[in-house]
Design goal:
- The longest helix has 14 residues.
- This protein is about 35% helix and about 35% strand.
- The protein has about 70 residues and is an alpha+beta fold.
- It has three helices and three strands.
- It has a three-stranded antiparallel β-sheet.
């Protein structure tokens, strides 16, 4: 959890299943309280961890937009 707070995201690669990739970002409300998370999930057959990380700006913007509405 500390790494997510510091980095603003979490990248899981083959953590629970071989070949699975997941990029997650936290969703905070206006009071900076954690209210959820959003993520993208794929496999190493489709893309690499490096390419998945290129989606981080869009995923972060989406999390901000959701947080602004809760």
């Amino acid at each position: 959890v500390r790494g997510v707070r510091e980095d603003g995201y979490y990248l899981a690669e083959s953590e629970r299943e071989l070949g699975a990739l997941s990029l997650s970002v936290p969703v905070y409300d206006a009071d900076k309280e954690l209210v959820g998370a959003i993520n993208l999930v794929t496999t190493t057959d489709v893309t690499s961890a490096e390419k998945l990380l290129t989606w981080l700006p869009e995923l972060s913007r989406g999390a901000g937009a959701i947080g602004a509405r809760v």
